[in-house]
Amino acid sequence: MPVPAPKRTFARTVTAAAAALLLIAGCAGTTGTNSAQGPNPPELPALRSLGAGEGQVNLIAWAGYAEDGSDDRNVDWVHPFEQQTGCKVHTKIAGTSDEMVSLMKTGQYDTVSASGDATLRLIAAGDVAPVNTGLVPNYADVFENLKNQPWNSVNGRMYGIPHGRGANLLMYRTDKVSPAPDSWRAVFEDAPAYAGHVTAYDSPISIADAALYLMKTEPDLGIKNPYALDDAQLKAAVDLLKAQHKAIGEYWSDYQKAENSFKTGDTVIGTTWQVIANMAQADQVPVRAVLPKEGATGWSDTWMVSAKAAHPNCAYRWMDWIVSPEANAQVAEWFGEAPANAKACDHTSDKAFCTVFHASDDAYWRNVHSWTTPVKNCLDGRGASCTDYAAWTAAWTGIKG
User: Could you give the domains of the chain?
Assistant: First the structure.
């Protein structure tokens, strides 16, 4: 069995504060290259040439993305970067995408490891600038299906350097759930069989999980993109989630608590990440995680440069460093995600790591719909007839009661 990532203290959370989101005018779909549906950001220049480092760089990052040996003295890719570049790293750990968006507006930070539910908000608001990928040599080795995607580019211009990605999987206790599920039906129509022991990710973006299931199972609803829902489609997803709520034992946002709930048996089936499954299996918990036949939602993180960066040269050096094969391998294993750099797979300590996390499996990622902020200008090209994230946030509050 592959060695799981070490236990850490980070939690990737999304809260009800999403009601205060800056909503963008529109964005592209969840797969393929960008289209004319994207937001119309202000015309901002990318850095044209790399100059001398400014001596420091101020990061906003998910916990686990900028390790300096403080949590584990053997886990440190910050100090080698500082020694090589002369750029002192100052890191602000953010707990939510909303916090990242708010912090970037202050202009006090140079770069941010934004997830797909934040990136387009930052682009549309003019808080981040396009990136000159030619100044990031290691970008050449980033997986092609992470480049020019709807959550990191607009009109063919990249607004960041891909960092890593993961899928939202279905996990179940093999000693409690039978037959073995291969569909999200197990946590929707079949959820009453496990009443009080079902879990789901605690975020309005989880409405997309229900929308994806309905997109595959109820084609008459006309859902083409799980992040593009009109009023009727949103209602159908909400109704499904309200029915599921009766069987929910707990919603999760902290991955360690989620793993412990499966360990104790309080949870027997629900949404998970691969790292949680690895940790549970390492603790001898009889669980299995699968990508259901309908596919899944997922997340993809991108390092973006502030439009007001005081230290842009060090920011570019950091982006190139964190996506370098060696550093990208380290952070992927520590955090528990598929690396962005294809060559990182040659540098993981666990040689099966990239296989477990499907790093180079194009077919796998075609079935993963990465988080993208829902907006009124439908992501599937229907026009301005869709519900936005504020509506999703209100709906999520109603679902949870």
Answer: 16-165+301-370 (3.40.190.10), 167-297+378-400 (3.40.190.10)
